[in-house]
Every structure is written in C-alpha cells, then in structure tokens.
Write a structure and sequence with these properties.
The structure is a single chain. The chain has 2 domains: about 80 residues, Roll (Ubiquitin-like (UB roll)), CATH 3.10.20; about 170 residues, 2-Layer Sandwich (PF0523-like), CATH 3.30.2380. With about 260 residues, it is an alpha+beta fold. About 35% of the residues lie in helices and about 25% in strands. The radius of gyration is 19 Å and the shape is globular. About 30% of the residues are buried. A hairpin with a 2-residue loop joins strand 4 and strand 5.
Length: about 260
C-alpha cells in the first residue's frame, strides 16, 4: 500500500488530503496516470507538469524524476505549484510563499549595487538575482525554486539563507563564491530577479521595477547551458523524458547537499 498526501490545491481535486492506494513497485509516472483515472470527474484537472512530488520527504527530482520507483509503505506527497502573470512577470504561489519573477534588462548602470538598493528600500522582501543565461525556461525555474523552498522547510538549505540556496542550485555548486561568479549579476547582461514576500509589497516592487523589465525567457539558453555544464548529446539521449535538458539541469540542482 502507498499513501498519497495531497497538499494545497491538490486536496480540492480529490476532496481529501490523503489517499491509500493498494499498489507497490510502481513509477511516479504510472502513479500520476492512476491518480488522473480515479480523480472525481467534476473537479479541475491535475496539471502534472506543475507539481512537486516528494517520496518520504525527498524531492523526486533528485532521484529519477517521473521514473522513480515507489515502494510499499512509501509516503508520496503531491504539491501543486500555482503560478500566474504575463510575459513580463511570473508569480508563483508555493505553499505560503509568494514569489515574483521578472527579467531585468542589462546595462552598465545596473549591477550589484542595484540589488543592494532594492534590499534597502524593501527590507521585508527576500531578493536573489540569477544571470538569465542560467535559467532555461519557466519549468526549470519553478522546479529549482520548489527544491529550495522545500529545503528551507526541511531545514536542509545549502546555506543559512533561502536566497543563497536558490543561487547555488541554479549554478549547480556548493561553493557560494563560485555561484556568485558564474550565475550572479554581470554588467550589461540580463538577469532574472526573484523576490519573495507578500502580495501588497511585491506589487509596489513591480511598479518600481517595471521600467527596467523586459519580456521574460525570450532567449533560448540551451546551447549555453549545455556548454557550461558539459552536457553531451549522449547524456541527453540516455534520459527517458520529453524534457531531458530541463530534467538534467533540475537534477544537478537537486542533488546538492550540505
């Protein structure tokens, strides 16, 4: 028997917060197919591309993704990642956290001091800036953020700050200095600004930032990421997935431990 714990919006889909299913030795992919079959017909669709799946508290992204085997007596947690926004802003609700993401146009006037100024003006917001080159797409972004916020909840952050953990996971390194050098802000280069706080203060922040923003994820960074992380075609072909590069990048960020 496998216990499926339904968190947040997933509880509304099944009208319960927990399911007991008489199965074992099944993959996450097959479990999701089964859940879609047994879900009540009059409830919203379960978006399997926007969920975090944990097995006994461990993120499945650090295992074998949707091919991870579920064993008898395992506890599988299904955590939806709710998001919204426009082509210039993404807002993610992950548990109790509200995360706002925008892309800032690179210029010689915008550097680390720009970020320091925002921290001074908005002391209740947690900020992190990631070079746009290190984020492939929204799927990659949301999964890494989910890994970091889950690590904070489980008290297994790579550093003492959530913001630093996020930077290190996108850079795929346990060395803070290396993460800053490789994936931090660089003059004249676009960067993704991640801000964590409540809705009212994030709305004020967006009003201030709007003149500096550009369309988010407008460039294809796949070639850069494959070269930077030395990802070969052979490695990608060995991954049984529709999104092998995304899954490999997420795995690199997920397997980092203190």
């Amino acid at each position: 028997m496998v216990t499926v714990k339904l968190v947040g919006g997933a509880k509304k889909l099944f009208s319960t917060d927990q399911l007991e299913i008489e199965i074992d030795d099944i993959t996450i992919e097959k479990l999701l197919e089964l859940l879609l079959e047994i879900k009540p017909k009059n409830t919203p669709t379960l978006d399997t591309n926007n969920i975090l799946i944990a097995i006994n508290g461990a993120d499945s992204s650090s295992m074998e993704g949707k091919l991870t085997q579920i064993k008898n007596s395992d506890l599988v947690s299904i955590i939806p990642i709710i998001h919204g926004g426009s082509n210039k802003k993404i807002v993610i609700k992950n548990g109790r956290k509200l995360i706002q993401i925008v892309e800032i146009k690179g210029s010689k006037e915008i550097d680390v001091s720009f970020l320091d100024g925002l921290r001074k003006d908005f002391p209740k917001i947690k900020f992190q800036a990631i070079s746009s080159k290190f984020i492939l797409n929204s799927y990659h972004l949301k999964k890494i953020l989910s890994i970091s916020t889950t690590s904070e909840k489980e008290d297994i952050l790579l550093s003492n700050k959530l913001e630093t953990d996020i930077l290190m996971r996108f850079a795929a390194t346990k060395q803070i200095a290396d993460a800053i050098i490789s994936a931090g802000i660089k003059p004249n280069n676009n960067f993704i600004l991640i801000a964590i706080g409540n809705k009212a203060i994030l709305d004020k922040l967006y009003q201030k930032l709007n003149p500096f923003t550009t369309e988010i994820f407008s460039k294809d960074n796949s070639s850069f990421l494959k070269k930077h992380f030395k990802i070969t075609k052979k490695q990608l072909d060995s991954i049984y997935s529709k999104t092998p590069l995304e899954d490999l990048l997420i795995e690199k960020g997920a397997i980092l431990v203190r």
